Amino acid sequence: MSKAISKVKLQWVDVGPLDAIPIRGARVVKSAVGCIAVFRTAENQAFALLDKCPHKGGPLSQGIVHDTGVTCPLHNWVINLQTGAALGADEGQTASFNLKIEKGRILLDAAQINSKVAA
Amino acid sequence: MTKQKLVVIGNGMAPGRVLDRLFEAAPGAYDVTIFNAEPRVNYDRIMLSPVLSGEKSFEQIVIHGDGWYIKNGVTLYKGATVTGIDRAARTVTTARGEVASYDKLIVATGSLPIIIPVPGHTLAGVLTYRDLDDVQAMLIAAKSRGKAVVIGGGLLGLEAAVGLKEQGMDVTVLHLMPTLMERQLDTAAGHLLQRAIEERGIRVITKANTKEILGAKRVEAVILEDGTRLHADLVIMAVGIKPNAALGKIAGLEVGRGIKVDAGMATSDPDIYAVGECAEAHGQTFGLVAPLYEMANVIAARLAGDQAAEFTPSATATKLKVTGINLFSAGDFAEAKDREEIVLRDAARGIYKRLVLKDNRLIGAVFYGDTADGAWFFDLIKKGTDVTALRDTLIFGPSFAGGTPLDPTAAVAALPDEAEICGCNGVCKSKITTAITSLSLKSLDDVRAHTKASASCGSCTGLVEQLIKVTLGDAYNPAAVQPMCGCTGLGHDDVRRLIVARSIKTIPDVMQVLEWKTSCGCAKCRPALNYYLLATWPGDYKDDNQSRYINERVHANIQKDGTYSVVPRMWGGMTSVKELRAIADVVEKFNIPAVKCTGGQRIDMLGVKKEDLPAVWSDLNKAGMVSGAAYAKGLRTVKTCVGTDWCRFGTQDSTGLGIKLEKFLWGSWTPAKLKLAVSGCPRNCAEATCKDIGVICVDSGYDIHFGGAAGLDIKGTEVLGHVGTEDEAIEVIAALTQLYREQGRYLERIYKWMKRVGVKTVQQQIMDDVPRRKALYERFVFSQKFSQSDPWAERVKGKDAHEFGALADLTLEAAE
């Protein structure tokens, strides 16, 4: 599912097939802005977040994926995959990336992953 | 004074109750001998259906364990059928030739299932539903997952049908009458029940007259009068019971439908009593537990010297013990001219209530769907209360009948002291409330232990809980059952029980069947469910990697910077030049920043990059090392001292035993991590007495300890028992591990499990009950067949490769 994007013309980068990510799992894309965790949910939706928990920088890609959330492996913070925001009593937000799926391929927003500061 | 000799023929629930009451009222007054035709102790026959559906085990329905007989000095002959009573000589004789003399005799031969004598009724595969042997035969037959036909749509037939369906069979119920359970239910409730049974995938055929059972050697089909042919691999006859009065007849006692007794439960011979389903009192015979227990109380009182005790049959109530179907009926609800009815129907919600009144008194009640107020109505029936003043709102139950506000506890608070709460065990309200206050009881389990209320079929559990709430007020914390997580209201034990009972074999099925509130669980419940399924269905369940915590998914320990640590096994803490050299080489080759000795006598390499893990493991594998599972909720280490190999104090080969244990136990998954140690003498250099399981070697053998802790909590171990040989030590430890695997809640360390179930219970099951220990051991050995494969070697070969490499590396492209 892609987020609403304001730019009219976008460059998209193909980072691989959706099938390469296990259902209810995640894999990492290494990029200029750091590691990006790409998640695949039980409903076959995909989301991309900076692979850093807003708490202590834990690798979210290594967490357990449930519904549209992921539980960080370090201290069990639960992060919303759509927004990157911490759920429950915890406060914090990690960067999220525009993503779309075309013909089973995952595409990331080139402008975002090449910029110095993630969106 | 010589004690009187009391002989009991039969070991069912009714004579069991006689003895319970007798030992309370007149302890030590009689020398008691019991002859049981079944080869076992007294168990709760009402609970056979949960055993059939898999919700309970036989051990859980035992009323009197072997210990009870020993404690009360009762001689029990198991598997001994009494064939004759010599009233002149006052002796009984068994088929095996044992003879016992009596001063007082109790005949409790129960009942026999009615067999319809249609052609083919003796074929193999035609069973009745009466005792544990029947249940075991059904469970074996059900393994075929074939077709079952249950003849009889009464209480037992329906419970058997649901049980067999839960075991995976394709089930059809045949019922002669137009509606199910017509003796307990009226037509309307019978139809609602039929719909609920059919919704479970069971076919129901009413007005079905069985003509013939076909089969060459064993049953193949059932033919009805109308020509319908039903394929069947198993036929259950559950059409009713008849009192088993044969022995009474042989002995020359007065016999009608059953053995005739007077109000004091004495037969035509004043020294012989009859109790239970074989007895005929006031011209009636009985099959429900409540009147049988009343009979038992009368005999106990008479034997204890109270000659005024008399049995008067009172109204009885019935509940169907099928999870999810609420059905209650009590008293007399046949239609007749002198009777009036009040009926409430809410078809959409599946609720039906019918009250039958005669002379302004309630004489019968039928409830379907909502049975919460059953006890209140039952009490009105038994007391014959004049309900004129309540009549306008009577059907709405106690919450409205007096105009009091709607509060679930109000109904219970409104009950009079003598209202019966637990029908199975005959416990009234005041007995429970008195026990709560005088013994400071705090929980449902406490109340069950001290009053037996809700300890049998459990259908009054809700009432008992409300009673505790009413009595204790805010001091009662009903959250005794902590839900697993926010995704469900069920606790760990319930989820596990239901996984077994309903043969649930995947995580999505658990969530579907047990009505999870979230679409795919959370990080708390998914790993727990994965463990429960793995432990319950070894070899059958496919491990769900995505429901495992990262450490168990990639077989290494995640560190705070996202790197991993790697710990190979060093069996029993022993290592070698080859292993140490391989470790040194790996550390150099992969620039591993830190190397450390662990508390479990092995070496930890810290700071390994995730993508290097398979290559690191490959090198360690080549030197013969495998994963140390330092990340697992499973067997970790077996720490040892040098024992008789080197130590001048060593009494046994502690290192050797430690290695044997580790080689036997490795790979097993447990509710939480499991650490062992073996010390070669009581100086205990391996610190075995603060481990999950510890062995202290002594001259005469091995002391086995368990339940220690040296982490968040510090706690010395408890002694499980002493054994003489290494083989026994290994068997005991494997059985203990299996018991913990089966009973421990996910993430519950062994010391917490031990505290919860009790050290004694564990000792009894492992040390005293040898057949049980062997069975646990066998189950452990079986599950190990599927778990002893080195996960590192598997991943070196390419398993789960997606875990160890990036999906894409855009930094490389940028550089190009």
What can you tell me about this protein's structure?
The complex is a heterodimer of chains A (119) and B (816). With 119 residues, chain A is mostly beta strands. Chain A has a single domain (14-114), classed as 3-layer Sandwich (Rieske Iron-sulfur Protein). Chain A is built from one helix and ten strands; from the N terminus they run ββββββββββα. In chain A, the strands form three sheets. Chain A has a four-stranded antiparallel β-sheet with strand order 2-3-4-8. In chain A, strands 1-10-9 form a three-stranded antiparallel β-sheet. In chain A, a hairpin with a 5-residue loop joins strand 3 and strand 4. The longest helix of chain A has 5 residues, at 110-114. With 816 residues, chain B is an alpha/beta fold. Chain B contains 28 helices and 42 strands. A five-stranded parallel β-sheet of chain B has the order 5-2-1-9-21, with no helix packed on it. Chain B has a five-stranded parallel β-sheet with strand order 11-18-12-13-14. In chain B, strands 24-25-28-27-26 form a five-stranded antiparallel β-sheet. In chain B, helix 1 (13-25) packs parallel to helix 8 and helix 12 packs across helix 14. Chain B is globular, with a radius of gyration of 31 Å. The model of chain B has no long low-confidence stretch (mean pLDDT 89). Chains A and B meet through strand 1, strand 2 and strand 5 of A and strand 42 and helix 28 of B.
Q: Structural class from helices and strands of chain B?
A: alpha/beta
What's the end-to-end separation of chain A, in Å?
17 Å
**What quaternary form is this?**
heterodimer
The CATH topology of chain A comes to Rieske Iron-sulfur Protein
- Counting structural domains of chain A, the number is 1
Residues in helix, % of chain B: 25-40%
pLDDT < 50 runs, ≥5 residues of chain A: 1-8
Report how far apart the termini of chain B are: 107 Å
Note poorly predicted spans of chain B: none
Helix content of chain A: under 10%
User: CATH-wise, what's the superfamily of chain A?
Assistant: Rieske [2Fe-2S] iron-sulphur domain
The general outline of chain B is globular
Number of strands of chain B: 42
